[in-house]
UniProtKB/TrEMBL annotation:
GO terms for cellular component: cytoplasm. This is Putative gluconeogenesis factor. Keywords: Cytoplasm. Signal peptide: none annotated. Belongs to the gluconeogenesis factor family. GO terms for molecular function: LPPG:FO 2-phospho-L-lactate transferase activity. One of its GO terms (biological process) is regulation of cell shape. The lineage of its organism: Bacteria, Bacillati, Bacillota, Bacilli, Lactobacillales. It is found in: Cytoplasm.
Amino acid sequence: MISLRKKHRPKIVVIGGGTGLPVVLKGLRKKNADITAVVTVADDGGSSGIIRDYINVVPPGDIRNVLAALSDMPKLYKDIFQYRFSSNDQFFSGHAIGNLIIAALTEMDNRGIFEAVQDLSKIMQVDGHVYPASDKPLTLNAAFTDGTVISGEAEISAAGKTIDNVWVTSADGSKPEAKQEVVDAILDADQIVLGPGSLFTSILPNLMIENVGEAVCRSEAEVVYICNIMTQKGETEHFTDADHVRVLNRHLKQNFIDTVLVNTEPVPKNYLDRQKYDEYLYQVKYDFKGLRDQGCRVISDNFLKLRNQGVFHNGDQVVDELMCLAGRPKSWRADESN
């Protein structure tokens, strides 16, 4: 009976980074999905960036949050893992305990971040798989429409310019590459989910690893993009939902997005705390024709969740749609829309 139950668990690969990824993963856990999270390794801000500067390891912050989201450990243990030291603690200021643990495991026996995360997944009783997109720290590079080029995720976001395209490089000059386990998971998936998350700095850094992007395009799974609710300063200012998809398709040189989840519920005027969430600018505009012209099925609904004067995706609502779609072949692409 158990084997039959597992056999019918949809295999869902979620690719991204940032704060939106754990929200989707937590919801998928409740639905008994077979989850693989492919997590960006190009983050160079905050605690992750500081650790990366001092220790030659992949930045651990996004990986830490994903591990916590999928962990079956008691709440107290997860709270300890996620605990961030106070700014008054000069030596550990701003560091999360989990980041330090991941860095330590990576350094032990020179095993690398991929094996370290697999070991930690067992310790934390992770329900699913957590795969760093690369075993080596990568640098995100951006070319802007004014012809300038900047390297570094934090620097790119702070530049305040219009991004034309992005790519990733490794410090040792080797070709950025994902482990075979990442490629195999993508090719074996029933569904591939992108987002929600920063378009240029959370989603595309994964797809710009050549064998990851190729696997996503080759996979028979439906590719679902969860479009952001708000535009992002320094990245997607004044973007429509169709603009987000257009950028993704242009980077992989084909229309590979099958379905887009779009929020159509208006954000109440003056609700957003502009000081706390200063990277958010305007609500993403809805362009149904632009999406359909790119061969996308559009699922539009109220995916909005308002909390603490912030604007988020309603994880449960998003996951309900993902589970309804899970396992459908690409053959029905663009034949229907909601």
